[in-house]
Amino acid sequence: MTTTYTGPAPADFTDVRATNLAVVLDYVRTNAPCSRADIAASTGLNKATVSSLVGELIERRLLRETGMTERRIGRPATMIVLDGAPYAAIGLDVGTDQLTVIAVDLGGEHLLAWRRAFTGRGATPGRSVAAIAALARRALGRLADQGRQVLGLTVGVGGLVDPDGVVRIATGLDWRDVPLRDSLVRALGAPDYPVTVDNSANLAVLAEHRYGPYAGTPDLAYLTSGPGVSAGIVAGGRLLRGAGGYAGEIGHFVVDPGGPECSCGRRGCLEAVAGVGALIRRLAGTEPAGDLEPEVAGIVRRARAQEPKTLAALHEAGRHLGHGASLLANLVNPSVVILGGHYVPLAPWILPTAGEALDTLVVAPQPPGAGLVASALGHDAAAVGGAAAVLDAVEAGRLPLPTA
Amino acid sequence: MTTTYTGPAPADFTDVRATNLAVVLDYVRTNAPCSRADIAASTGLNKATVSSLVGELIERRLLRETGMTERRIGRPATMIVLDGAPYAAIGLDVGTDQLTVIAVDLGGEHLLAWRRAFTGRGATPGRSVAAIAALARRALGRLADQGRQVLGLTVGVGGLVDPDGVVRIATGLDWRDVPLRDSLVRALGAPDYPVTVDNSANLAVLAEHRYGPYAGTPDLAYLTSGPGVSAGIVAGGRLLRGAGGYAGEIGHFVVDPGGPECSCGRRGCLEAVAGVGALIRRLAGTEPAGDLEPEVAGIVRRARAQEPKTLAALHEAGRHLGHGASLLANLVNPSVVILGGHYVPLAPWILPTAGEALDTLVVAPQPPGAGLVASALGHDAAAVGGAAAVLDAVEAGRLPLPTA
């Protein structure tokens, strides 16, 4: 007996069958091969219901029967595994300097992974949307050639994205109130699969939650820097979205009131003292523009060469980042805070001071393995997360239409 | 079509029937009187399943049939309503200066509400636990006299409570590693209902989520001051607990690095600049001890008399509190941040500056009605929330044992 409980199940009353389909699909995903009797025994659903649910999932080509049988007491059973061969889930991440599109099948195998240079800043939103749609169309064409049915497309943007897929603010792209989802739906000819738009950090933490070293950990936080700084949070096994979809905005938390000026007009915001853009500004003496990756690679070179100014700047950025991470740790108490994006190559020099600052500022006794780690998923996390978001939705019961 | 989805249902595979019982119970709670056919139509469960679930809920005396019938097309149907007459859910809040115990029935009607003076600080944990157990026993005795079956007892403490009900740190009570749950279970003779312990702010936000003016709002935050400051968060309709159960620790977030010293050794923590203890220290010039309520009442009197020093201190505390609230707003994006506990009587003087600071510091476009409000539940919120936590657990499918 513990004090843990999760409150009432989030029951959408019209959706009990969808929930049960999701329960069966998720069970098979984690326990395949398994028999209908296994599913019934483990889920508590009665056998007739399981047969009906499995039948529907087979019809939709999400599951299939194998020839395998189980030889226990009684007659052998037909075993069920994921089908999913004909499906594709697509994630497309819009960075300031590049676009990444990744498609996976139901089991998470990559079907394609492309990166393209992109002039996010400086172009009009209309041109940017056209470039995004063009890349999506090419990926869709390739998947069609492979005979894949698309389950959905989720696009990530570093910024505030409302529940209708309007990008309210994306400073890295210089966007305000860009109706990205509707524009893409139009550009793709109103497809019959869902097209959604989400914050990149939200998608990245979904990728960590599904595919990273901490996959399945119910409470995770992800901290990344675009040029800005933002967080994605999984709490109790679900993405924390908030009332308007804007959770995770940590970049303008003031960690150093006397610090450098921030793009928001205040001083010493996390973004201004520990963002990758700020680091480049300080160390390269130039305004970060276009592709950040070579600039970050330059910082890594100078850090490897033990250049004192570079090391000092990284250590200081680490301390501030640890301060920022302590906010996440204290307010949402994740098992671990994962540093992603451009922080990954810099991690050897920022993690030590960041970890110290975090340890000093965390109030609660830490669970085992708590602290800060660098992401193992690298720059693809948000695009992979877009595909993961599609799979999450399917597994929650938003099943694809049966093929004609 | 929106970008909103909630990810996979939190499926505990052994618990599909419990979930379905919960679905039916929650449906009747919000739609009674209703027929079995109504339940089947609205939940998507088949009629045979609904009959079996309703039968079990009637057997456990959570539902009952009424003589009422519905006259539509076809034969009249027996209507179902909440029974719950014989049940009681108990919440007990341990303040630094008083104990509050509240019992409610399934429908939320108060069966008893008692407050007792309590010397939380200065007494040994053993004596305090004995006092808590004594009050619980008296409440249990009264409920037994009323013929009530107890569904559960949840005790709230202002501090870090682990999932086993051990109070790891409660500075207001001077407790460290006090195994409150186990001690209470022993003192109450190992009762057959669940005894749980939780953080008071967590329980208070559950009370707001069930009974407050924002009841049912999926994303809520609650900010309260004991003498310390802490937060409770409901995200996506569920309490945000975090990996170790320690979410909501906002009190030692540094809002004013040059500010007054905090009990934690740092300077300018939210608790040190906007906690009710700090306010008393500044305005009364005395160390807050024992009952804070008369001291707060004194501050209210001086504020009503427009005493400049008092008004200035409250306005400043409000600004800092707005800064703290902005963290909640930016990181978890609730529909509203509710100020509770001792902040409620002070709200007329702290809300204006707090609201201004919040508006300045919130990054996202605010949903309608966003901002800061004072709790309508007052000092009873945590005790009511303890009872609400018991009802949440029942409605999630942790049903009481059938009476012998």
UniProtKB/TrEMBL annotation, chains A, B:
Gene3D superfamilies: 3.30.420.40, Winged helix-like DNA-binding domain superfamily/Winged helix DNA-binding domain. It holds the Pfam family MarR_2. One of its GO terms (molecular function) is DNA-binding transcription factor activity. Residues 24-65 form the HTH marR-type domain. InterPro entries: ATPase_NBD, HTH_MarR-typ, ROK, WH-like_DNA-bd_sf, WH_DNA-bd_sf. Belongs to the ROK (NagC/XylR) family. PANTHER family: BIFUNCTIONAL UDP-N-ACETYLGLUCOSAMINE 2-EPIMERASE_N-ACETYLMANNOSAMINE KINASE, ROK (REPRESSOR, ORF, KINASE) FAMILY. This is Transcriptional regulator. The lineage of its organism: Bacteria, Bacillati, Actinomycetota, Actinomycetes, Micromonosporales.
